[in-house]
Design a protein that fits this description.
Elements (H helix, E strand, L loop, with lengths): L11 H8 L5 H9 L4 E2 L2 E2 L12 E2 L11 H5 L7 E5 L3 E6 L15 H8 L7 E2 L8 E7 L2 H12 L4 E9 L8 E3 L2 E5 L8 E5 L11 E9 L26 E8 L6 H8 L13 H8 L18 E9 L6 E5 L4 H10 L8
Parallel strand pairs: 7-14
Antiparallel strand pairs: 1-2, 1-3, 4-5, 5-7, 6-7, 8-13, 8-14, 9-12, 10-11, 12-13, 14-15
């Protein structure tokens, strides 16, 4: 199969996903890893960028004889809050709990929902990704030229992607740069096992460089071992982990590795509140079980990960205008934040 101008610059995995409709993504990635997919007669990786004139060899693939249309059509089309839109670009405020694309047990995600809700759209592709439990700004290209332009900006670190994260503990003010390689691995031995990420040493050949910038926006007042803080907003019996306090961080990623923020912060001993993969599971359970109290209106449980893609800075792919977009913290995070860090709190 020859690559035409419309597919120029597209990642190999995304190209195959579009071409092999109905084939599970796990199978597509297995074909790539095993070398059965060839680009110009050579093995290629999932992130290989295809160029006009390239020849892609795809082995015979058997599509499962089942239709997923009835199950998809039975689900109402999701409506996402649009933060910005023009002829080239769409930016939405993704809610937590929604995957950006189908796969790994999810029939369809944001991009599939958008294509369903906009049947006349000729082109809709994710420019980047967010974890399922992360809310906030997500960019979708409406033109291939916009996709390539913005992905080039991401690759060259010309964009600014800043998140708000609430972590357990008082983050040190002098710890501003985390430059730690990350490595993805499987929890089990088979291909279907869950993927996780860990920090590795800088001389580890499997490590991918990852850079995270951290700025403290607000943190709990210091406490002493002998005297608990007198904070009227806290319950009489503090939940497990509350004695450590909390820090609200502005986190900017200069590289886009899987689970980068979550793993980097946790590796420093400051896990994100509510993180069910790399967090403090005892604290998460305590925070989720908090009961609303009419005498303490600000008290609110936290039943999701406190990570929100808050700000995006980039150069518009058509106008070349430098842009900055924001997505306000979701209401459930605002409520919990006013409880965890009540003093002089201002909504970001």
């Amino acid at each position: 199969m020859a690559i035409d101008e419309d597919s120029n610059g597209q990642r190999l995995d995304n190209f195959l996903i579009r071409q092999l409709k109905g084939v599970p993504k796990t199978h597509i990635y297995r074909l790539i890893r095993s070398g059965q997919v060839r680009v110009n007669k050579a093995r290629a990786s999932a992130d290989t960028r295809l160029l006009s004139g390239d020849v892609v060899r795809i082995p015979p693939v058997r599509v499962a004889e089942r239709s997923i249309s009835p199950s998809i059509s039975a689900v109402p089309v999701a409506q996402f809050k649009v933060v910005f839109e023009d002829d080239a670009l769409l930016v939405i405020d993704k809610p937590a709990g929604v995957a950006v694309h189908g796969g790994s047990g999810v029939s369809f995600g944001v991009i599939e929902q958008l294509r369903r809700s906009r049947p006349d759209a000729k082109f809709l592709e994710l420019i980047h990704r967010l974890d399922r439990e992360t809310s906030g700004l997500l960019m979708i290209a409406k033109k291939r030229s916009a996709l390539k332009h913005l992905q080039d900006q991401l690759r060259e670190r010309e964009t600014g992607k800043t998140y708000l994260a609430l972590v357990s503990g008082r983050w040190p003010l002098n710890k501003k740069v985390l430059d730690k390689p990350l490595h993805k691995y499987l929890l089990g031995d088979d291909e279907g096992s869950e993927r996780r990420v860990k920090v590795v040493s800088k001389d580890d050949s499997n490590g991918m460089r990852a850079i995270t910038l951290v700025q403290v926006r607000r943190r709990s007042a210091p406490t002493t071992p002998t005297k608990a803080p007198k904070t009227a907003m806290l319950p009489v019996t503090e939940p497990q982990g509350f004695e450590k306090g909390f820090s609200l961080l502005e986190v900017t990623i200069k590289t886009g590795r899987t689970h980068q923020i979550r793993v980097h912060l946790s590796s420093e001993g400051y896990p994100i509140a509510g993180d069910d993969k790399y967090g403090d599971f005892g604290l998460n359970k305590a925070l989720a079980s908090l009961k609303a109290d009419l005498s303490k209106p600000a008290m609110a449980p936290l039943k999701r990960m406190f990570l929100h893609a808050w700000r995006l800075q980039f150069t518009h792919p058509i106008s070349a205008e430098r842009m900055e977009l924001h997505a306000q913290l979701p209401e459930e995070l605002q409520h919990f934040l006013s409880f965890a860090l009540p003093s002089e709190f201002r909504t970001p």
